[in-house]
Design a protein that fits this description.
Number of helices: 14
Helix content: over 70%
Strand content: under 5%
Largest sheet: none
Structural class: mainly alpha
Radius of gyration: 21 Å
Shape: globular
Number of strands: 0
Length: 349
């Protein structure tokens, strides 16, 4: 794909790199959460406040990056509905079903103390319906399935709409988020339709950036300003509100996410400019197995905390989550690759 190609569905290694960055950020988030819980129990401070506030704003954009990437790739395509749902929803749900059963079985025997098949089935059904899956990190599956259900209608809209109409829609969605940020007492984001509207902005925004914005003369300075402005606003907001680790960091993260996505897209070499190297092959593998890595990585970060507590406590505290995340990323990639080679690809990733 050349820089001037406006076909977002053509292969581009930049998609693989952005997906690799996104899954790495997601694993760092969950590593930070485990370390926070462990450090709180031990009376340790996870990181100095300045460092933790600054780092959290970057790692929490992992999921929005995934949503933007999905929008960039899916909204540009034209395919029959049966083909779309078979390729997307069925492919998404089969690994989710398998790993949900495995993960809940582990939780059921180790944490919940269950001892009956009927109790296991009732618990799994309850967790899936009321708790966003067998594990708390699986909430993203429900979000992306919902976005997939809206994709056919969104395709009709973006293919028929003018560039100006799409820009106006994105500006309107951003205005809703800014209004909620400036008037928190209105609690707009407490309502599911508004929350979904924010995620939809990322979905359509990814398509707009790849299809239109990257070719605009104002795009590069705009994403730089978006990144800097979003980062400063989020940090100031956290400091002013004396925020804890679990604070909802999605408030006005759109500027930061759009800035990061745009900067990555315009700064990464295209496939034609990249030589096939070990690093490039590794990135392609992580991208190809990213869904399986997402479904399984917490098994490895949990094991890291359980079986290597001495290693964790001996590391400089600011790089603990990075070491855990890279270890889990490598281990999950290897495991998913081995399982795929055994013929289980459709069930594990």
């Amino acid at each position: 794909m050349t820089p001037n190609n406006t076909n977002p569905t053509a292969y581009d290694i930049r998609y693989d790199i952005i997906r690799t960055v996104a899954i790495t950020l997601v694993i760092i988030i969950h590593s930070l959460q485990l370390l926070y819980e462990a450090s709180t129990a031990d009376g340790r401070v996870l990181t100095p406040a300045t460092i933790s506030y600054s780092l959290l704003q970057l790692v929490y954009i992992g999921v929005p990056l995934f949503v933007m990437l999905s929008g960039a790739l899916l909204l540009a395509k034209e395919e029959p509905l049966p083909v779309f749902f078979k390729k997307r929803c069925v492919r998404l749900l089969k690994p989710f079903a398998l790993w949900s059963c495995i993960v809940f079985a582990m939780r059921y025997t180790q944490e919940l103390g269950g001892d009956s098949a009927w109790g296991y089935m009732k618990g799994l059904l309850h967790a899936t319906v009321y708790e966003n899956g067998a594990h708390q990190i699986y909430w993203y599956v429900f979000l992306i399935v919902t976005l997939y259900l809206f994709t056919p209608a969104l395709r009709v809209y973006v293919h028929a709409a003018s560039k100006g109409n799409i820009y106006f829609l994105l500006a309107l969605m951003l205005a809703v988020e800014i209004l909620d940020f400036c008037l928190p007492e209105t609690t707009l984001l407490s309502y599911f339709p508004v929350k979904f509207l924010i995620k939809l902005k990322f979905f359509i925004g990814g398509y707009a950036i790849v299809r239109y914005m990257q070719h605009e003369s104002w795009f590069k300075p705009a994403v730089i300003v978006s990144f800097i402005t979003g980062y400063i606003i989020m940090i100031v907001n956290l400091w002013c509100n004396d925020s804890e680790f679990a604070k909802d960091t999605y408030r006005l993260c759109s500027l930061l996410t759009i800035g990061v996505f745009g900067l990555l897209f315009i700064s990464i070499p295209t496939a034609a400019q990249c030589r096939e190297s070990l690093l490039v092959r590794a990135v392609k593998a992580i991208s190809r197995y990213s869904y399986g890595i997402y479904l399984t990585h917490f098994l490895f970060i949990s094991a890291f905390m359980r079986f290597f507590p001495g290693v964790v406590s001996s590391l400089p505290i600011c790089i603990e989550p990075l070491v855990m995340a890279i270890s889990a990323l490598v281990a999950s990639t290897i495991m998913v690759h081995v399982l795929c080679r055994t013929g289980l690809k459709n069930w594990v990733c």
